[in-house]
Amino acid sequence: MTALDDRPAAPPARAPRRSLLLRLPEARWAGLALAAFAVGGLLVLVGAPVRAWGPVLAVCYAAGGWEPALEGLRALRERRLDVDLLMVVAALGAAAIGQVVDGALLIVIFATSGALEAWATARTEASVGGLLDLAPARATRLVDGLEEEVRAEELTVGDVVLVRPGDAVPADGVVLDGAAEVDQSSITGEPLPVPRSVGAEVYAGTVAAGGALTVRVARPAGESVVARIAELVEEAARTKARTQLFIEKVEQRYSIGVVVATLAIFTVPLVLGATLDDALLRAMTFMIVASPCALVLATMPPLLAAVANAGRRGLLVRSAQVMERLGAVDAVVLDKTGTVTVGAPRVVGHPDDEVLALAAAVEARSEHPLGRAVVAAARERGLVVAEVADFSAEPGVGVRGTVGGRRVGVGRAATPPREGNPHATPRREGNPRATRALGSSPRDTDPDSATTLVDVTDLGTGRVLGTLAIADGLRPDAADAVADLAARTVVPPVLATGDRADAARGMADRLGIADVRADLLPEDKVHVVEGLRADGHTVAVVGDGVNDAPALAGADVGMAMGGAELTMRAADVVVLGDDLRRLPWLLDLGRRARRTVIANLVVAGTIIVGLVTWDLVGHLPLALGVAGHEGSTILVALNGLRLLRGPRRPS
Ligand code: ADP
Ligand code: MG
């Protein structure tokens, strides 16, 4: 059970954005503090007596200060020094030496920046939570030809639902009947609707137009892709970036350092003959401007806003750390089948019925796209697909099994799966060129598809029974995406595939990829990645299959195409939908997030150093110190929010 299962079926309609700020308790307390400050300050200005402005400013201190004070004391009990507490102490200290208005100003600005911070977090969360609102609450279920209205969460796997034009799909499923243009932008960010007809997968929360669909439910509501997206992004929000972990490690010691320095700045001048008020004021100002509030806020808001932004485009980034690393990627390794190709291959040519039936019997157990193509081809021809025993798969090589007492292997041409005697070399019968030619019969020649050859071998005799040609379309935007990636990386994109060199080469030429590594086993793909990393590169691997899992794990950033459960678990980034051009876009986003983090750290650090120097060397007015310190905190927090939008797509 996931936490998502507890969510109400129909999430409350989202309130308009304007009121988001007002709904935050932090904002209401800050508002009260601000109002009290305005009234109290005015009374002071017009020369009203203490008994008039005193209580008003006391309200200001209480409204703005009680929460950070409580939090700070709680932290102190756990032997942690909270910077918020320093702010409250500084304000009280200022009041103690008669700077009551300055202290109140500190409280007000501090409370306001706290409210803005809470707002920034809520904004990021809302843009994630918005995803969940997309799945409709109700569904039209078909039972024995009759329609019944049910709640979407009641749907179970195997139910059949009707989706009318304009309706949102209520659950992940497969189209049984009908055709429609489906707007998947809510999940994949793809702006154009995609045609969906019988056999196609549709996702909860996408919207059908131009036709009705009958859909068989494939996943319960709690496990739908849209629910997983929200879950993953929420998980990401609970992670911390490396920079943040470093800052938090240093923060404690730094804060204690600030307290020690404050005491020194107070006592030393006092001993040397300064007045109590002067010494205290300078020390309080120091404590405020030296506090690391802005530094603490420099890192996570931009990274998490970027994670939410990517999530809305169907790019699920697992953690803030991954977003940080994405900004440093300078080498990309692409898998071929299912990554730059559509991953919906079909058997072409005219293979022998018996060979096809044997192959299909073994492949029926395979999850590989090639396997599904073989099974589909056999079914299309109405062949009987026999039972298979002793099935096993070797990722990146092929599959084998016993069909009707015969050991059969289906796999890479010329290198069938090894079995038994490792020295037994397969013998090819007949003219291999004649079988090769199958894949290029005129009817099947499609300039935008890649053809893979797969041998069907009798493992008992080592005889190749036949060769199947299987063609897969190139993703339409693959060449553009490769060019965009090349423009953003130091190492030109690498195509790494388990397929044969000649097939891979032809495809790479069409994509504009010069560096092709073919005939790779899963562990060879890892070596490709390790080689690039050894040269000091930050490597992203994009893959789709089980055979890519080791390389995905070995990469700095592993990106999986598709929402399969296995890849969702293994990868750092899950890419939903087909639009490959979001990959360069994601690199841009990561880079922008990284640049924003650095800019934030520089701004925050510079302002701290500047104000501290001013306070120690000259006379920094308390109000100015407060404004500078809190101003930089707010600036940094808002700067991070910019990552909720853009960057523009590569063009
Ligand atoms: P890629 O690296 O291009 O995604 P894979 O590593 O998944 O390709 O597969 C490499 C090669 O191994 C394929 O081109 C195919 O020849 C063979 N192969 C792998 N799995 C299967 C299978 N289930 N059926 C037939 N051939 C397979
Ligand atoms: Mg693949």
TrEMBL record:
Which cellular compartments is it found in?
Cell membrane
MF terms from GO for this chain are: ATP binding; ATP hydrolysis activity; ATPase-coupled monoatomic cation transmembrane transporter activity; metal ion binding
Q: Which Gene3D superfamilies match?
A: Calcium-transporting ATPase, cytoplasmic domain N, Calcium-transporting ATPase, cytoplasmic transduction domain A, HAD superfamily/HAD-like
Q: Primary place of residence? A: membrane
Q: Which residues cross the membrane?
A: 27-46, 254-272, 284-308, 597-614, 620-641
Q: What topology does the record note for this protein and the membrane?
A: Multi-pass membrane protein
Q: Which domain of life is it from?
A: Bacteria
Q: Which Pfam families match?
A: E1-E2_ATPase, Hydrolase
Q: Fetch the SUPFAM superfamilies from UniProt.
A: Calcium ATPase, transduction domain A, Calcium ATPase, transmembrane domain M, HAD-like
- Give positions of region: Disordered: 404-450
NCBIfam families documented for this protein:
ATPase-IB_hvy, ATPase_P-type
UniProt family annotation:
Belongs to the cation transport ATPase (P-type) (TC 3.A.3) family. Type IB subfamily.
Q: What is this protein called?
A: Heavy metal translocating P-type ATPase
